[in-house]
Amino acid sequence: MMGESPFTPTRGTPSGHSTVKKPHNLKNGRLMPKTRSLWPFACLLTSILAIVPSLCPLAGEYEAIGSLKETQRAAQQGSVEAQNNLGMIHRDGLGAARDYAEALKWFRLAAEKGSPEAQSNLAAMYRDGKGVEKSPAQAKEWFQKAADKGLAEAQLALGLMYRQERSSPESQRAAVDWLTKGAEQGLADAQYALGLLLNDPATPVRDDQQALLWLRKAADQEFPKAQTALGQMLADGNGVPRDAVQALMWFNLAVTQGDPAAAKKRKVLMESMSQEEIAKAQGLADKWLPPAMERLPTRPQPPATEGGRAEIRREDPKPGMRKKSE
Fold first, then answer.
1. Which of 27, 127, 205, 303 is deepest in the core (most CB within 10 A)?
2. What value does the mean pLDDT take over residues 116-139?
3. pLDDT, tens digit (0-9, with 9 covering 90-100), for 150-159
4. How far apart are CA 291 and CA 298, in angstroms?
């Protein structure tokens, strides 16, 4: 039923005739402006904060606190996933005060129940001495448990720990084994670390061809440090035939992703190259696409701009596995 207006006739009067409601804002025979309610504005503000939390940090904080309460409840009820998540919340200060001791407690609970993610997180706490005294032995033990379960990040971390034991050939071989397991799962950080290890002249496990292969795999995932390392390998002819044009192409690609080391190396390399070689390398970089995009179905090309060149927008083909190690 539609709401009545201030002038809607009403029934049931003593005379049986319709009468007119007197508006509340009628004063001295004149219709006065109504007082505006703040409710619509409050609703609008709430909607904006819900849609764009970044406009107000407080909105994001409320959301995080709500999530924290739910996670705490699930963790206390024995959910392994929630226990690991709660550990990360306290470790990183996500919606709660950073508390390494509390993080350690929840990681340990989940790790002892067999969660590889929690085992890897617990190992990192021991490795870095956060919330607990540093213990490489404990770190390696927990990384081993998670790596044995196939967690690529743990395999990378374990491989890097063995890598640091440079005086032991057995440790170097163990580093190659674990880094290879992580690299074979597509983890770009592991592919990069493996490539560096295999290209190291001081290591007993040096294999330049394998180093080139793994650096290329990481570079193809648009991992800038791998692109720079691959460029340097080709620029120096370090274990592979020297190719300045290909080296400059990889430096150019790494520079576009903001790697400062690539910018310095590119400058040095260009001083020894002809303008023709530099232009060729730039052309290769402009045309380069990650292998994942090369396999995509061909799409209609966009119309050319005023300069006669088509503007092509590239989509990120990566699955999102890599961190800003993020």
1. 127
2. 97
3. 999 999 999 9
4. 14
